[in-house]
Amino acid sequence: MPVDVVVVGQVARDLVLTVADVPGAGEQAAVRRRYELLGGKGANQAVGLAQLGMSVTLVGVVGADRVGTDLMEQAGLDGVDTASVVRREGTETALIVNVVDSRGHWHYLEHIPEATLVTGPDVVAAGAAIAAAESLVVQLRQPADVALEAARLARAGGTRVVLDGAPSGDEYSREPLLAAADVLRADAREGELLAGRSIATVRDAILGAHAIRERGPELVVLEVAGSGNVFVDAERELFLPHTRRSGAGTGDTTGGGDALVAGLTATLTSGGELAEAARLAVAAAGATVERVGGRPDLGPATLRPHLDQLPHPPTGGAPNETAGETGRAARR
């Protein structure tokens, strides 16, 4: 049965340790809290989409080890279809150690064996699910040729292509991938890389988004570091600031971008307009960075305080000719 969204991306065991301060060389620090979670950007996005009511299939790789089994069990409990997750013999499941200090600053230690990256054959094996879905999310820490193969399978089936991040590799692999995208989301650093310009202000981000749009994506979402995100399509240039619940601090910023992608994709997949998608995306990110670890919690009660800080979409007026198109036929 077709699902709403297929996510191609990293699956890992997340070990999150909270400390007062990260120790220097020759020093030690007591761990305040320890969390062991299903993680990796692909898994985080898939879980967020499921929490927002989407049916979702995850395409990724774990080892044929006990850790991989535990992660797949957790993904199933989270409502994520794991039939297209490969259990790779001869490799360990990826591990991400995230040390978070009292200011919410994170420090990553990653063990991501090359064999845990998605391959072309892995994507082809999931081709029927990709072509039948409404939307495909590709997390661009995967090899560029694999991401392009997934995007091409999606385009052939009329599936919306959402890219998260900056394509790796040179322009010969980057440009075809951008050309195959309907939506691209990037953080400030990735946005500067793609746009070829500094992004220090909202205006910088809007100009950068238009420059990227000329290379393929209909909708571009770029972060303005420390400020918020711009959402730019053919008709509209929206800026929404970061949200913060009164009295809440930043627990850990690592999962904010993944939650933003989940909120954006869920709304577009459901046929929502750009302004509605932007609100949910920003609220989802705001709710997630209050938590330690990248795992989202996107229930209504968690999202409401953040949605209440954002302007409601305007009613009436002419529809957006690009973002207003919904359904598979409009994307063919």
Automatic annotation (TrEMBL):
Its EC number is 2.7.1.15. Keywords: Kinase, Transferase. GO terms for cellular component: cytosol. InterPro entries: Carboh/pur_kinase_PfkB_CS (IPR002173), PfkB_dom (IPR011611), Ribo/fructo_kinase (IPR002139), Ribokinase-like (IPR029056). One of its GO terms (molecular function) is ribokinase activity. The keyword Kinase applies. Residues 4-295 form the Carbohydrate kinase PfkB domain. Residues 293-332 are annotated as: Disordered. It is an enzyme of class 2 (transferase). Belongs to the carbohydrate kinase PfkB family. This is Ribokinase.
